[in-house]
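## retry 2 of 3
previous attempt timed out at serialization; input unchanged, resubmitting
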Amino acid sequence: MPSPVLKYEPATSTLLAEVTKRSGQNLQACYQCRRCAAGCPVGEETGVTPDRLIRMIVVGDREEALNNLLVWKCVACYTCGTRCPNNIQTARITETLKQMAKKAHARPLTPRIADFHSAFMTSTRHLGRFNEIEALTIYETKTAIKELSQGKVKAVIDEMIGQARLALSMMRKKRLHIGVDRVKARSEVQALFEKAKGR
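## retry succeeded, writing output
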């Protein structure tokens, strides 16, 4: 008795359409060669590699696509894109999914990374470029408030001491910049943020 013929139906997922549009990446060009997976520095730690993430999106698995560690732990090294024969930049996809998760008010799997991301973006929008002092002040304040609300006073004190030691060490090595650098056309950067928010 012959085995039944399996029919492949092209994905028409709304998730696929949304991520493709917002990230500017052609996810349907991925043929799962896994070259991106071989070079991903966080794939093993997160349990999800770029090819698996793309597959989740293509098949329309919104829940898994928005709720996995790769979205929050991707370091945007762009190794995946340089290895990809179709030039798919997964870092742009993870950034898109991160924004979608925030817009949907989904609880991040790693709140500290979400807080750092938020502080980075706030500082960049404000000054037109990343400022270590401003961004880390925003980040540390936000995380300290959360931990104090949970009664973790010792954890907050330990964090402050650790960060102060790190700051002194970085200043000695001239790796921490105290001054404030601004781009000339900050309004253009803010306009880009507004445009991205509407996508």
